[in-house]
Write a structure and sequence with these properties.
657 residues; alpha+beta; DNA primase DNAg catalytic core, N-terminal domain; Dna Topoisomerase Vi A Subunit, Chain: A, domain 2; 4 domains; Znf_CHC2; primosome; EC 2.7.7.101; transferase
Length: 657
């Protein structure tokens, strides 16, 4: 009994021979080229010191130039593990995540039928080739000539023509005594629904033969000559021989070219592949009218660990690229990925080669985007992230996509890359001082009058002290993050909002945002590279920092978390008070109404609540004229406002206060 047809081919496709062999040998780094799947090692089957054992990972075969041992992944497992054929198959299938189907007693019979179907399809290839030379194909030949295909290209790609008749191919094959079952089974004809003779699948079309990795003709793609035809391109139906989700156009020749060092290119259609091959890009393939499937992706990776997807620059092409990302993310492995070269809008590879030439196309290939860049582009392009909710939605979407990646190392690198891109998008922007109103439509960055003595003694004049307090507070926050970098991510938005007037603080903040919750030693190395060996030590040794409990106890994550939360809350409240005072000063150019004074008192109250401790002296409160308790900060804010109002009165302002 045998396994079902196609199972062993798929198993060999999914199994990386270099990984299988790599468990038993040590690769020679001087001779091996992992990127090309060209690996060399001392032979595991006989004693030797030189690396004469060769593995061609793309073709899936090994050969020893010393003892002449050769075979594929199955034979290697059989020889090295001393197991039988089925045990070797089960070992490889388990590693590839493929269930082993039950053995089929009719497997040989099915294999024989597949061979017969391939033979019938080969006859059809020859018949279509002959039809292209007839008078009925004059328009088809003219079209192919306009597309730049000369006689040599037609011969190379075996392009033919299906005349617009109902039983042309059917009658030709019946004349060679081919059974109805084989013609229908090869997808070359369809049974009549009216009880008549079966009719040809392809009529009035230019024909492109599709061959498998072994070079067998398994199906056809046909381009309609009638511009009104509903199906511009039509593929053979699925048969025992042809599964379009497991097939690629030009796969055999592309594999050979990739084995010689060319980068594998994935285009959308037959004409793109042909144009690429004619321009010298011989390692080119195309899926067959559908989005790339998981099986096709595994086939691509067997040929090249990082193929380049060259999709059309239209909406459909871009959608196909984005769908492919979702398919590929869970399948990524170390060294296996995709890159994307998007054609200019409205063009495909064939158009670009004709309009701009090989050099322009080569530059586009060299600038192909890694998949993580396209993932970021998909989630951010054309969107505005001007609110915390929108930023959070972006974070959630990206996190969900990254979690699809099964390989923990790749998942970690994707996370870091996304963090870097996010930092570039949301990095804090430098800003000048707050503008002050000077009349309708006029703005300046300087106050309109000199400060009065009352204003000089108010909280507004203490701005320098407020900045110094903020500087001290920032030092504590940064030191806490440096000692416990694992908490950075949960306070990321607060860290982004820090003002950081000190350039060193700004650099530390940016490094922490970029490199995130990494090991403390890694973060220290980044800081060392950016600011030198003494920067972190100087930060930690500042007196107000050194006495902070979480710095004295560097391993206490919870204490660091509480410290950062408290200091960020104080900082935010202080900034809120400062903003309200500046806005109040602007409003004083007009009527100083109760709304201004109420806003100031509320902002001062918030700052007071954020900074007040449990041991605060109750005498710190002042009782106002209406019996309300007012904190010292609120009182200072009132002093500021009243001093400014008095100053404006002294200048002759007659507005009511």
């Amino acid at each position: 009994m045998s396994l079902p047809p196609g199972f062993l081919d798929e198993l060999r496709t999914r199994s990386s021979l270099s990984q299988v062999v790599g468990r038993k040998v040590i690769w020679d780094p001087r001779k091996s080229n992992q990127g090309k799947g060209d690996m060399w090692a001392p032979c595991p089957f006989h004693q030797e010191k030189s690396a004469s054992f060769h593995v061609d990972d793309r073709k899936g075969f090994y050969y020893c130039f010393g003892c002449h041992a050769k075979g594929d992944a199955i034979s290697f497992v059989r020889e090295t593990e001393n197991v039988g054929f089925m045990e070797a198959v089960e070992i490889l299938a388990r590693e590839a995540g493929m269930p082993v189907p039950k053995q089929d007693p009719r497997a040989q019979e099915k294999a024989d039928k597949r061979t017969e179907l391939a033979d019938v399809t080969e006859l059809a290839v020859r018949w279509f080739r002959l039809q292209l030379k007839t008078g009925a194909a004059e328009e088809a030949r003219a079209y192919l000539e306009r597309r730049g295909l000369n006689e040599a290209a037609l011969e190379r790609w075996e392009i033919g023509f299906a005349p617009d008749t109902w039983q042309g191919l059917w009658d030709a094959l019946k004349g060679k005594n081919i059974s109805d079952e084989l013609i229908l089974g090869a997808g070359l004809a369809k049974p009549s629904t009216k009880g008549g003779k079966p009719y040809d699948t392809f009529r009035g079309r230019i024909m492109f033969p599709i061959r498998d990795a072994r070079g067998r003709a398994i199906a056809f793609g046909g381009r309609a000559m009638d511009p009104n035809d509903n199906a511009k391109y039509l593929n053979s139906p699925e048969t025992e021989l042809f599964d379009k989700g497991r097939s690629l156009y030009n796969v055999k020749e592309a594999r050979t070219a990739a084995g010689k060092g060319q980068t594998l290119l994935v285009a959308e259609g037959y004409m793109d592949v042909i144009a690429l091959q004619q321009a010298g890009f011989e390692a080119a393939v195309a899926p067959l009218g559908t989005a790339i499937t998981e099986n096709q992706l595994q086939m691509l990776w067997r040929i090249d660990p990082e193929p380049i997807i060259t999709l059309d620059g239209d909406t459909a092409g871009q959608r196909a690229a984005l769908r492919l990302i979702d398919l590929a993310l869970p399948l990524l492995e170390a060294g296996k990925s995709l890159r994307f070269a998007m054609m200019p809008e409205g063009q495909d590879p064939d158009d670009l080669l004709k309009s701009a030439g090989k050099g322009a196309f080569q530059k586009l290939i060299e600038a192909a985007l890694p998949m993580v860049q396209l993932l970021w582009q998909r989630e951010t392009e054309g969107r505005v992230f001007d609110s915390p909710e929108r930023k959070a939605a972006l974070d959630k979407a990206l996190r969900e996509k990254i979690m699809l990646i099964k390989d923990p190392s790749i998942r970690s690198h994707y996370g870091q890359e996304i963090k870097d891109l996010r930092w570039q998008l949301f990095r804090p922007k430098k800003s000048g001082s707050t503008p002050v109103a000077r009349g309708k439509g006029k703005w300046d960055k300087t106050p309109p009058y000199k400060a009065s003595p009352a204003a000089k003694t108010s909280v507004l004049a203490a701005a320098g002290d407020l900045r110094a307090t903020e500087h001290l507070r920032e030092a504590v926050i940064l030191a806490a993050f440096a000692s416990c970098p694992q908490i950075i991510e949960e306070f990321e938005s607060g860290l982004e909002g820090m003002t950081c007037h000190d350039p060193d603080h700004r650099i530390l903040r940016d490094l922490m945002l970029r490199h995130g919750a990494q090991d403390a030693a890694v973060l220290r190395e980044k800081i060392y590279s950016a600011l030198g060996p003494d920067a972190l030590e100087n930060l930690m040794s500042q007196r107000h920092v050194a006495i902070t409990p979480c710095i004295r106890n560097p391993g206490d994550t919870e204490m660091a978390r509480l410290t950062v939360a408290e200091e960020l809350a104080k900082s935010e409240a202080a900034r809120g008070l400062d903003a309200e005072i500046e806005e109040a000063v602007e409003d004083l150019s007009g009527v100083a109404d109760e709304g201004v004074t109420w806003r100031l008192s509320e902002a001062a109250r918030a700052a007071d609540l954020a900074t007040r401790s449990g041991q605060e002296d109750k005498a710190e409160y002042h009782v106002g004229d209406n019996g309300a308790r007012i904190s010292k900060d609120e009182r200072s804010a009132w002093d500021t406002l009243l001093g400014t109002i008095k100053f404006s009165k002294a200048k002759g302002d007659t507005t009511d206060s």
